[in-house]
Amino acid sequence: LLTICGREGWFPHLGPCLHASIVKNPEFFEPVDPDITRNALVVWNSLLALYVRRGMLADALKLFDEMPMTDNISQNTVFNGFLKNREIESGFVLLKRMLKSGGFDQATLTIVLSVCDVPEFCLVTKMIHALAILSGYDKEISVGNTLVTSYFKCGCSVSGRRVFDEMAQRNVITWTAVISGLIQNELHDDGLRLFSLMRSGLIHPNSVTYLSALAACSGSQRIMEGQQIHALLWKLGIESELCIESVLMDMYSKCGGIEDAWKIFESTEEIDEVSMTVMLVGLAQNGCEEEAIQFFIRMLEAGVEIDANVVAAVLGV
């Protein structure tokens, strides 16, 4: 009922009633024997998650403090709610409580690292990294992956690469995180070298990895490597995915291959605003002024929403 209540939007009507029913029947929802405790904890955590999903964080924290039993799931639910709603200060107050009580796990660490996405959080990332080492959770692949992502998002590319190099286990998420991170930090050649190393191993790239590699080709204007990746995508049968087509057009445009970009655009089965914007910017950047203006008129006729990138491209021709 609690799950349905949250999904179907019935919380304003049923939520308080279900909460009251749980409180009024303590014999079923308090730690009396192991079997009841396990089942009761599931109910309490479901109620807690319901308040968090509704954004009622003050009520969620009050419920958490009044619950007759809690576990790491309870704590992580409230903690995640604070951070997802960018109530960082309240979230870190709760984290301090969790650390004092020893009630944290690898999920706690990945939750806090997920908000470390700007340079100002580099020190926090390093502190959580130290905590992961002390607690032994640095060996967990999920923690390692999140550390790599956080370090690169914070601009600490050296630390991100070091974590990657020291990881005993890696999966496609690990490789994609470090390749994407290198490219986000404009280390395009390093990203391409690592992509090549990944392809020579046992872990195969996914669509996101290929998108990152194409972005590296765009950033370093390596059209030959871009063509090789294009051929791989064709061989794998994923060349025609809309997001990949847009990135391919962008890569060819930035590498001076505007004709190839245009061929991809013309062969695209489903044209969207992103692909049209990429094509317009590509035409403008490659000195095709007349074609860019005609294409802009085509976009207006198609009812495409004009954003800052489109305006900048048109003003530049």
TrEMBL record:
Report whether Nucleus shows up as a keyword of the record.
no
What are the UniProt keywords, alphabetically? Repeat
Q: Does the keyword Cell wall biogenesis/degradation apply?
A: no
Q: Which Gene3D superfamilies match?
A: Tetratricopeptide repeat domain
Q: Where are the PPR repeats?
A: 40-74, 171-205, 272-306
NCBIfam families for this protein: PPR
Q: Do you know which PANTHER family this protein is assigned to?
A: PENTATRICOPEPTIDE REPEAT-CONTAINING PROTEIN, REPEAT-CONTAINING PROTEIN, PUTATIVE-RELATED
Q: What is this protein's record name?
A: Pentatricopeptide repeat-containing protein
